[in-house]
Amino acid sequence: MPLAIKHLLGLEGVSREDVTLILDTADSFFEVLQRDIPQVPTLRGRTIVNLFFENSTRTRMSFELAEKRLSASPLNFSTSTSSVAKGESLRDTMRNIEAMKIDMVVVRHGAAGVPSFLTRCTDAAIVNAGDGLHEHPTQALLDMMTIRQRFGKLSGLKVAIIGDVLHSRVARSNAWGMTTMGMDVTLCGPPTLLPQHPRALGVRVTDSMDEALRDANVVMLLRLQLERQGAGLFPSIREYRERYGLDLDKLNKLPGDIVVMHPGPINRGIELASNVADSDKSVILDQVTNGVAVRMAVLFLLGGGENA
Amino acid sequence: MHKKPDGRLVYLPGIDAHPACILIKNGRVIDPANNVDAELSLGVENGVVSFVDKEIPEGFRPQEEIDAQGMWVVPGLVDMHVHLREPGREDKETIETGTHAAAAGGFTAVACMPNTNPVLDEESKIRYVVQRGQHCPCRIFPIGSLTKGLLGEELSPFGEMVRAGARAVSDDGRSVHKSNMMKNALNYSKSFKIPVICHCEDSDLSAGGHMNEGPVSTRLGLRGIPSIAEETIVARDIMLAEYTGARIHIAHVSTAGSLRAVREAKERGVPVTCETCPHYFTLCDEDIGDYDTNRKMNPPLRSAADRAEIVAALADGTIDVIASDHAPHVSEEKDVEFDAASFGVIGLETSLGATLTYLVEKDILMPADLVEKMSLNPNRILGLDGGTLSKGRRADITIIDPKTTWKVDPSGFFSKSRNTPFGGFSLKGCAHATILGGAIVYLRNTK
To answer: The complex's ipTM?
Structure first.
C-alpha cells in the first residue's frame, strides 16, 4: 500500500494510515540498522538533493546517512543566503538543480511554506526538513517512533511539550501528528512564548508546567533560544529554569515510566538538568538513532522504492 | 487607440483634448448629491454636462450616442489611494499604464501616494507627477509626503506642494512614529485645508510579520501582524486629530477594532473619515491558502469576523470611501517564498467589479451608496469639484454595466503588473464607458 501523500510537507492533514505506514516502515529499517552491513539497495541510482538554506548539522547528517543507507546518492547544497539577500531566486535555484536530473529534494529553509513553494517549481518529491516556524515533520515522526518503541502504542498516551512553543516547528508537527494518532497533547510555556491563537493547533495549551505534567506519560522539552531574552520574551535564565526547566526534583514527582525527550541540541542546565538528560528516563539518543530510520522510511516510501 | 486581447478599447485623447457632443440615453442616472436616481437622458457639450432630463432638448445634435439601457450613469469614480510607482519603479507601473488601468476600471480621477523614488516631498516632484499626468486618460491628484523622505523626522513643505497640485499629505506605507511629530503635522495641515491620510501601523507591533496574527498564522507558521498594530495608531491619530482639530482620513481600515474607534470618534464629532479596500470586504486570512503571495498586503487580510465588521461598517456609513490601494509589483517580487514577497496587490481594474459583486449585488450597498463611496465622498475629502452630474459641471462620467459577468484575467490588464488577489474570479458588473472632461476615454467593446 503506497502513501496517500506525494510529498512530506508537514503532518497537518496527513492521515493516520500514512503515519502508521511510515512508522511501521521505520521499524523495519531500524532492524536493518542493527545489521553488520546496515545498508539496503532500495534507492540505488537515485539522486537526492539536501537543500539546506538554514544552518543544520544533525538533521542534514541524519538525512544524508539515511540516503546512504538506502544506497541513494546524496547531493548537498548548503547556503545561508536566500533570495531575500541579493542573489538567485528560490525558483531559479530549484530549476537549476532540477536540470541536473535529480529525484528527490530534502529542504530546510527559514521561511514557512518553502517546501510547498518548491512543489510548484519541480516534479521531484519534496521532503520538508524544517520550514520557518511551520513544520518539521520528520522530527515529529521520529518522536512518535521513539514513544511507540517505549510504550508499544501511541493512542491514549499523554504528552507535555514544554518551552518556546511559539517559535517551534517541532511543537507544531508533533501537535498535528500526535493528535492524529490519538494522543493527548499539551503545549506549555510562558504566555510570551505561546502562540496568541493556539486553538488553531487543536491541542491544550497552558502556562503551568504542573498542569502540563499532570498524568503525562511523555515530557518533551524544547530548546530555548537565548536571544529570546533580549527580545523581552522572558526575564532571565534563572526564572525560566525555575518555571519551565525539568530537574531531578520535578522528575522524581512524575510516574516511574515517564519518558523524557528533547529534539536537541540541549541547553544543559536550562530547559533540562544534566542529570535528567543523562538519566534512564531520557530517550534523547534513541531519538537520534530513530531519526535515521524514520528518514529512510520517508525517502523510501516517497521515492517509490521496492519492498524493504 | 489601444486594443487589448479581451476586446476592450481605449481612446486616448488626453484630458479635455477633444470634448465631444455626447448623448447618453436610456440610462439610470444616479447622482446622490442632487438626490437624483431616475431613468434620464444626459447630454455633454463643450466638456460639461449640458442637460439631465427626461426629454432631449430640441436642436441637440450629438456626435456620439451611447445607449445606456440597463446601465447606470454616475459621476466619474475616484480612487483616492493608488501607487503609480513613477518616478522610480517604472518597471512596476507608470503614470501612463496606471491611468489606463484606472480609465478601464471606470475611474476619472486617482490620488497617488508619495512613496515613489524619489519621494514626493517637495514642489518640483509634485509638479513632475502633475505634468506627466496631463495627457493621460484619468486625472491625477498627487498626495505629498507628510515628512521629508517619509522618514518621520522633518515636515515636508505642505504649502509648496499644495501650490503644485497636491490634495492631501500622507506618509502612506508607514506611520509617523513620533507622536509629537504627528501632532505638529496635523496642526500645520490646518492652514491648507487638506486632509492628512493616516497609514496606521505601530511598527514595533508589526515588526517581522507577514500576515494577520491569528489561528491561520499559527497554523502556517508565519509571523503575525496583530490587529492591535493598526488599532493602537488609529486610536492615537484620532486623539491627535481631536486635539488639534485637523482633518484626518484613515487609509485602508482592516480591523473591527479600528472601526469601533472611528465610529465612536465620528459620533463625538471628530473630523475623521476612513476608507477600506475591496480585498478587505471580499477575502480574509484563510484565503492565503497555500502561501499565496497575491494575497499578501499591508495591512494584511484579517479574520472572517473582521471582514464581517468591514461589511457592516460599509453598510452603516462608518466607512466613507472604497479605494483600491493599487500596489503594483513585478512577478519576481511575488513569485518567491511568502516571507520574501513584497506587500501589496493591484486593484484599479477590479475595484468596481468587486464592489458591485460583493456589496451591491448582495444588497449591502444601494447603487447610490456605491456612488457616494467611490465618487462623492473621495471628491469631498480631497476638496475636488467632481462627484455630481449637475448641469454645467465638468463632464467626468462613468457608465456602469451592473449586469455583465466577466472573468478576471490578469493577462488582459492595462496595468503593467499582475499581482491581483482576484485572478480567475467571476465578477458581475464593470465599467461600460468612462468619459473625461466630455471625451470618451474608455468604451468597453461589447461585441
So the answer is: 0.93
